[in-house]
TrEMBL record:
<dbReference type="InterPro" id="IPR003675">
    <property type="entry name" value="Rce1/LyrA-like_dom"/>
</dbReference>
<feature type="transmembrane region" description="Helical">
    <location>
        <begin position="7"/>
        <end position="27"/>
    </location>
</feature>
<dbReference type="GO" id="GO:0004175">
    <property type="term" value="F:endopeptidase activity"/>
</dbReference>
<keyword id="KW-0378">Hydrolase</keyword>
<feature type="transmembrane region" description="Helical">
    <location>
        <begin position="169"/>
        <end position="188"/>
    </location>
</feature>
<dbReference type="Pfam" id="PF02517">
    <property type="entry name" value="Rce1-like"/>
</dbReference>
<dbReference type="GO" id="GO:0006508">
    <property type="term" value="P:proteolysis"/>
</dbReference>
<keyword id="KW-1133">Transmembrane helix</keyword>
<keyword id="KW-0472">Membrane</keyword>
<protein>
    <submittedName>
        <fullName>CAAX protease self-immunity</fullName>
    </submittedName>
</protein>
<feature type="transmembrane region" description="Helical">
    <location>
        <begin position="145"/>
        <end position="163"/>
    </location>
</feature>
<keyword id="KW-0812">Transmembrane</keyword>
<feature type="transmembrane region" description="Helical">
    <location>
        <begin position="70"/>
        <end position="89"/>
    </location>
</feature>
<keyword id="KW-0645">Protease</keyword>
<feature type="transmembrane region" description="Helical">
    <location>
        <begin position="200"/>
        <end position="218"/>
    </location>
</feature>
<feature type="transmembrane region" description="Helical">
    <location>
        <begin position="112"/>
        <end position="133"/>
    </location>
</feature>
<feature type="domain" description="CAAX prenyl protease 2/Lysostaphin resistance protein A-like">
    <location>
        <begin position="112"/>
        <end position="208"/>
    </location>
</feature>
Length: 219
């Protein structure tokens, strides 16, 4: 089995399992996070063990400072767009449903600070390792177009497990398109580097915007 098919098999199975954990089993956030960490790193270990390939996602060489500056600008822009979109569309969002869903996963005012810190720095890094490192970086040399489309598509689908019941169909599709586009941009930022730090920086800043929205709207 080629690298391409191994990546597609392992990544699609991982996202399917996480969808079941989120939407059917309804794990609390802590247990869902533990499961995600185990699944993502187990997949990486198995893939690199089978293929005898090296992991370069964390390499600090060839860090492009110009792209890091672009990442900061894009991150700030993304945060502002997210916050602006919230104010435009807030009357069409069911915040009662969101609050209830979060409470079921033990995301409350008491736990929000710690979860926010994890989301901004830990979860964002985990997602970058998986979607931009494991999927995109391992596919881009031989399957560049497929790498762009598949990793961005899976990135968008992965997030639907979180907000599946939050929005109406129009907002759901808008969010899906937005996430796919963000995935494409994240891939572009990392294409000529040997690591995932460019997209991770944007991800961090964008997640800060999401946390600000949560503070305003829910907590």
């Amino acid at each position: 089995m080629t690298h391409k098919y191994l990546i597609v098999l392992y990544s699609s199975l991982s996202i399917a399992i996480l969808f079941i954990i989120e939407q059917i089993l309804s794990f609390e956030y802590l247990y869902k996070t533990i499961a995600k960490v185990i699944i993502f790193f187990l997949v990486l270990f198995i893939f690199h063990y089978i293929t005898k390939s090296k992991t370069t996602y964390f390499a600090t060489r060839r860090i492009d400072t110009k792209r890091l500056k672009i990442s900061v600008s894009l991150g700030i822009g993304a945060s502002l767009i997210l916050i602006g979109t919230y104010f435009v569309l807030k009357d069409h969002i069911d915040f009662a449903q969101i609050s209830e869903n979060l409470a079921q996963k033990n995301i409350t005012g008491d736990t929000f600070l710690f979860i926010s810190i994890y989301i901004i720095f830990g979860n964002s890094f985990l997602e970058e390792i998986f979607f931009r490192g494991f999927i995109f970086k391992n596919l881009q040399q031989k399957h560049r177009l497929f790498a762009y489309i598949y990793s961005s598509f899976l990135f968008a689908i992965y997030h639907t497990a979180i907000f599946l019941t939050w929005f109406n169909i129009g907002l759901f599709l808008l969010a899906l398109i937005g996430l796919f586009t963000i995935g494409l941009v994240f891939n572009w930022l990392n294409e000529n580097s040997s690591n995932i730090y460019n997209s991770w920086l944007v991800h961090i800043i964008a997640d800060i915007g999401i946390i600000i929205i949560a503070l305003i709207a829910v907590f």
